From TrEMBL:
GO molecular function: methyltransferase activity
Species assigned in the record: freshwater metagenome
Residue stretches spanning the membrane: none
Gene3D superfamilies listed in its UniProt record: Trimethylamine methyltransferase-like
Keywords, ordered alphabetically: Methyltransferase, Transferase
Protein name: Unannotated protein
Family to which this protein belongs: Belongs to the trimethylamine methyltransferase family.
Length: 487
């Protein structure tokens, strides 16, 4: 199997802009009116207290925001920040023109061709993490590939964090669902890096996703997770789940106004907790199938919403997050073309963080082993696309044309042979190099070949080295926390 080597990616192309500048400002103004007139329901008393102290109007659970306060606080969010990885070579820069791809995070189920769709468990979670470690195009793990439903819900995050630290040497996401899960991620990361919370704040390690409850609600667990993480100097990606026609207006303009207002409200809260806290503007705006009410992904609306959201994120000088999604229930053509549409919208919308970039299936209910590999193949293609076209060696190209002359070919020319290893994209999943060899394999499709590839990656996995003293300290921390949480 041929992989591209690990590398930090930079998008050298101008983003696609589907909104005119005046339309971006219109969405901004509408968002501000929504926050000042209608307000947002903030269910956490602690969060409401922070906002009230800053001058927001609080009426029971509804908080109304002063537009000047929002503008001032949002301006404090940095346009770029770094996330340390256990392997320093895999430290990420989030923002600017940088692009990072994450694996799928959060499904309840997992799937592969051999074992079918099933509830996730700890053993298979470990398998998935090992394959993620092996795929160099995946820059960050996405916060648990699927739930280990064989473990107690109160403590399974501890087992996940331990495996993330042990099995990976790349960046990983924490869980922002409540104070305890967020705090445990911070404390275990500090142990892994041999530092304390102050040291971790100086050089952030954790990024976590905070979702609002659209429309216009921030619940208690997410507010707690947000405040715990930003209070410790760690990064948060604020992502409303705005499905046009369901929990958002049926038009993209209305859905974008709602998304934008929720991001701005949570950004204001985060900056009041810790000025300068690293944040990401998250977009997950799509539409629903109006005949069934089920979410639709990888649609033209999804793609345009991603590109428009990138314009809004740049309007506020914030890094931008989008996703790779599909509503398909199988690793089939639908899954591929919806993912391709999603990825195109994300990358050409200027996304700095592409969440769920590999492995997402069934509208986010399932993490697929084969989809993980096929998505990695698409990501490698995108990585090649992001590279600039160079014309500084045009004289060499002219020499090559002169060497071959009219009516010739370039297969064996010096110009071609000098670039044989690097000049052209070579697929990871497909194998058309030898028809007889392809036919002997039964003319297997891409999904079947992906099945063989993830098994090969799993068999070849080697655990990254970890200081035994650090590992022992982590095990002791997990045992202590389990005792405290389970009694």
């Amino acid at each position: 199997m041929r992989q591209q080597p690990w590398r930090s990616l930079v998008n050298h192309h101008r983003p696609v802009e589907v909104l005119r500048p005046d339309q971006v400002e219109e969405i901004h103004r509408a968002s501000m009116r929504l926050l000042s007139d209608t307000g947002m329901r903030i269910l956490s008393p602690e969060a409401r207290a922070v906002l009230a102290a800053a001058g927001c109007s609080v009426d029971d659970l509804i908080v109304r925001f002063d537009p000047d306060l929002v503008e001032t606080q949002v301006a404090l969010a940095p346009g770029e920040f770094r996330l340390r990885a256990r392997n320093p070579a895999k430290t990420l820069t989030i923002g600017g023109n940088h692009v990072a791809f994450t694996s799928v995070g959060g499904p309840a189920f997992c799937h592969d061709l051999d074992r079918g769709r099933r509830a996730g468990d700890q053993h298979q979670q470990g398998e998935y993490l090992r394959v993620i470690q092996q795929l160099d195009i995946i820059h960050q793990e996405g916060g648990g590939p699927f739930e280990a439903l064989d473990l107690p819900p109160e403590t399974r995050h501890l087992d996940l964090y331990l495996e993330l630290i042990r099995l990976l040497d790349k960046s990983w996401q924490g869980i922002a669902l409540g104070t305890e899960r967020a705090a445990d991620a911070i404390d275990m990361a500090a142990i892994a890096f041999g530092t304390d919370r102050e040291g971790l704040a100086a050089e952030p390690v954790i990024l976590a996703i905070v979702n609002t409850n659209t429309p216009l609600t921030l619940d208690v667990p997410m507010a707690e997770g947000l405040m715990e993480l930003v209070g410790a100097g760690q990064a948060v990606c604020i992502t409303p789940f705005t499905l046009a026609g369901a929990m958002a207006p049926a038009t993209l303009a209305g859905a974008l106004v709602l998304q934008n207002a929720e991001v701005l409200a949570c950004t204001t809260l985060a900056q009041l907790v810790r000025p300068g806290a690293p944040l990401v503007y998250g977009s997950f705006t799509s539409n629903v199938d109006m005949r069934s009410g089920s979410p639709a992904f990888g649609t033209p609306e999804y793609t345009k919403a991603a590109q428009a959201s990138g314009q809004l994120a740049r309007r506020y000088g914030m890094p931008f997050r989008s996703s790779n999604t599909t509503a398909s229930n199988a690793v089939d053509a639908q899954a591929a073309y919806e993912s391709a549409m999603s990825l195109w919208g994300a990358v050409m919308g200027g996304a700095n963080l592409v969440n769920h970039a590999a492995g997402w299936l069934e509208g986010g209910l399932t993490a697929s082993f084969e989809k993980l590999v096929i998505d990695a193949e698409m990501l490698q293609m995108l990585a090649e696309y992001l590279q600039p076209i160079t014309i500084d060696d045009d004289s060499l190209a002219l020499d090559a044309i002169a060497e071959v002359g009219p009516g010739g070919h370039f297969f064996g020319s010096a110009h071609t042979m000098a670039r044989y290893e690097t000049a052209f994209y070579e697929p990871m999943v497909s194998d058309w190099s030898n028809y007889e060899r392809w036919a002997e394999r039964g003319e297997a499709d891409a999904t079947t070949r992906a099945n063989a590839i993830w098994k090969q990656l799993l068999a070849e996995y080697e655990r990254p080295p970890l200081d035994p003293a650090v590992d022992e300290a982590l095990v002791e921390f997990v045992a202590h926390r389990k005792e405290a949480l389970l009694g």
